[in-house]
Design a protein that fits this description.
It holds the Pfam family OmpA. It is a single chain. With 640 residues, the chain is α/β, with parallel strands linked by helices. It folds into 6 domains: 79 residues, Histidine-containing Protein, Chain: A (2-Layer Sandwich); 114 residues, 3-Layer(aba) Sandwich (hypothetical protein tt1634); 112 residues; 118 residues, hypothetical protein tt1634 (3-Layer(aba) Sandwich), CATH 3.40.1520.20; 119 residues, 60s Ribosomal Protein L30, Chain: A (2-Layer Sandwich), CATH 3.30.1330; 32 residues, no CATH class. It has 17 helices and 25 strands. A hairpin with a 2-residue loop joins strand 1 and strand 2.
Length: 640
């Protein structure tokens, strides 16, 4: 049976339609699958594992919870980079925002001749009126610009200690910029001289609070040194500088290179200062040091443009002439050389007049030896009183005739040199002066050397043996709070603080003990100290508590009378609490009647757990879980 032509055509059209639909569906499926795969790979590469990618025809649907709105937007943008952006359907949600972190409280304080200005953010719990009164007092009549804002968030730990330290620093520093946060105080200031800079550093170091990092940078103008002096010695004891002044870093490098060639080791306390007589100062000093190195020893003194070379005794005349001649011709034009070749010492010793000045560690000053007349003796005593105020001075000098010319000048110069030391001795002889001792000033040797050159002349012979002792340095030797308490305990262990029976009156024997404690506390700065009073168990508990309180107050009053800053101290009477011995024996009761000193430890901030805090903890835990990837393991392995 033959099919009609019309039926055949219908079948062909139907088959073509079916094939078209099948091809279209297949094409859509392929495009959909490839789009989903491309977008998914991109999001995974970018670290968006939380995002799910679905396909719906040509549309790409993004689902999931983004941690932040910014991350959600980046994920959509990355997906739009792989397929047409119009095909991307955003079904993403954003996680609830974590608890807003409190702002960083900070204050910037500027003080100068125009007044004091403050800007920053402080907690609402801050007493603004008290802060304003304190700043106004520091400004001393100058205008105060207060641009501080407040925020209602908990006060950070150590915030009050940091602000208090900043205000104490502001009281000392007239030209300063102080930055305060809860864990760090940065102080930048200008001083008028190196001496003032050192005083500022000592004051700030004494008030340094616990738990707060402190950065102090105090600038001072370069000192002006006159005469501008460098003195270098090379002998059997080695190479060393008695004084060293430089005008530039380049000059310092030249000098240190020459000194190293001559055998100098260690660090030279060269002072970068003003007053150099020539731009070629470094070259002149370096050549002079090289000359005595070639001589095998000697002393070279460069004071302004005068160069004095003293060769070792016994140096050959030809060698001396050769080296001195080369130095004289190579020195820069501004410098003039004087060279001396000492004779060998005589075998027959002769008795020489001598003057000796000593300064003991306890501050006792003694003078022994010869002076030319009574007037000089009186001048020596008066000069010593001016140089050593509030010291016990013992005069053991005697008037003698026939002393060398200039003896009085040498004696006074020796006393002035001794005043640069913490303890030591000076021996004055006609042809030599010896200065020995200890000091807490790293530049004391250079100061003494310049002083003696100025007073006695460049050709003067003197020996300096001054040792820097860290414990004597007012900055480096500052004890820590724990060391201060340990020193007080050491004092009270050997000598107990005692009171008249049944009263809060200190006994006479206790006064020296309190004196020693006061001296320790004066060196420790402002500490938070608790003075605790204890009694035995005799009597009523209430009376014992009151008696212990009165005794603790009495100790605090005694320290205040000795000019100890006790504003940060507190006195507490504990009565018969915390016995350290048996109250049934007389010795035990005596041991329990005591005064104790201890540091007041800062209280940790109270942890107010709220619903918001719990939510914050949950968010933190979730974030930590999400970030725990194999990359973290790799990083840990690398750090190991």
């Amino acid at each position: 049976m033959r099919l009609s032509a019309l039926f055949i055509r219908l079948i062909v059209f139907a088959a073509a339609g079916f094939l078209s639909v099948a091809a279209a569906r297949t094409t859509v499926s392929v495009v959909e699958e490839r789009s989903v795969i491309a977008v998914q790979e991109t999001l995974v590469d970018q670290g968006y594992e939380w995002a799910a990618v679905l396909g719906d025809g040509l549309q790409v649907i993004l689902e999931g919870e983004a941690p932040t709105e910014a991350v959600r937007f980046r994920a959509i943008s990355d997906a739009g980079g792989m397929v047409d952006a119009s095909r991307v359907i955003d079904n993403l949600s954003v996680a609830d925002s974590a608890i807003i972190q409190p702002p960083q409280f900070a204050i910037e304080i500027l003080r100068n001749d125009s007044g004091v200005s403050l800007i920053g953010l402080i907690p609402t719990t801050t007493d603004r009126e008290a802060l304003a009164r304190r700043i106004t007092g520091i400004a001393d009549g100058l205008p105060v610009t207060d641009l501080l804002e407040v925020a209602d968030y908990p006060t950070p730990p150590n915030w009050r200690a940091a602000v208090n330290y900043a205000l104490r620093s502001l009281e000392v520093l007239n030209k300063s910029k102080i930055s305060v946060t809860s864990d760090r105080v940065s102080v930048n200031a200008i001083s008028d001289s190196p001496e003032e800079k050192r005083r500022f550093e000592v004051a700030l170091a004494r008030n340094r609070p616990d738990g707060v990092r402190v950065a102090v940078e105090i600038s001072a103008p370069r000192p002006v040194i006159s005469p501008f002096t460098t003195r270098f010695i090379l002998d059997e004891e080695g190479a060393r500088f008695d004084a060293c002044a430089v005008d530039t870093e380049e000059a310092l490098s030249q000098i240190m290179a020459a000194a190293s060639e001559a055998g100098f080791q260690g660090r030279a306390n060269c002072i970068l200062a003003l007053g150099a007589p020539s731009r070629t100062w470094g070259e002149a000093v370096a050549q002079s040091i090289a000359a005595i190195d070639n001589l095998g020893g000697g002393t070279i003194t460069i004071s302004d443009t005068d160069v004095t070379l003293i060769a070792p005794a016994g140096t050959g005349q030809a060698t001396f002439d050769n080296i001195v001649g080369r130095l004289e011709n190579s020195l820069p034009d501004a410098f003039a050389l004087t060279a001396e070749l000492p004779d060998l010492p005589s075998d027959t010793p002769e008795e020489l007049p001598q003057f000796t000045a000593t300064l003991s560690p306890e501050g006792e000053v003694q003078f022994r030896g010869r002076v030319p007349d009574d007037i000089t003796n009186t001048v020596v005593e008066n000069f010593a009183s001016a140089r050593f105020p509030q010291r016990n001075i013992t005069m053991g000098t005697r008037v003698a005739e026939g002393l060398p010319s200039g003896w009085s000048v040498r004696v006074l110069a020796g006393i002035e040199a001794l005043s640069e030391l913490s303890n030591g001795a000076v021996i004055v002889e006609p042809e030599n002066m010896i200065v020995r001792g200890n000091t807490g000033n790293e530049t004391a040797s250079a100061s003494v050397s310049r002083l003696l050159i100025e007073k006695l002349g460049q050709t003067a012979d003197f020996e300096i043996d001054i040792t820097y002792v860290k414990e004597l340095d007012p900055i480096a030797g500052l004890p820590t709070p724990e060391e201060c308490i340990a020193q007080i305990i050491a004092v009270t262990e050997g000598r107990k603080i005692t009171f008249d029976p049944g009263s809060a009156d200190l006994t006479i024997d206790t006064q020296p003990v309190v004196d020693d404690i006061a001296e320790i506390l004066k060196k420790c700065g402002d500490l938070r100290i608790r003075v605790s009073g204890f009694t035995d168990s005799q009597g009523r508990e209430v009376m014992n508590q009151q008696l212990s309180q009165d005794r603790a107050d009495a100790v605090l009053t005694a320290l205040r009378a000795r000019r100890v800053p006790v504003s940060t101290f507190e006195s507490i009477g504990f009565g018969e609490e915390n016995p350290i011995a048996d109250n049934d024996t007389e010795d035990g009761r005596e041991a329990n009647r005591r005064i104790e000193f201890s540091l007041i430890q800062p209280e940790p901030p109270a942890e107010d757990i709220s619903i918001l805090d719990e939510l914050a903890a949950d968010v933190t835990d979730d974030a930590a879980t999400e970030e725990a990837t194999p990359d973290a393991d790799d990083s840990a392995a690398e750090s190991e």
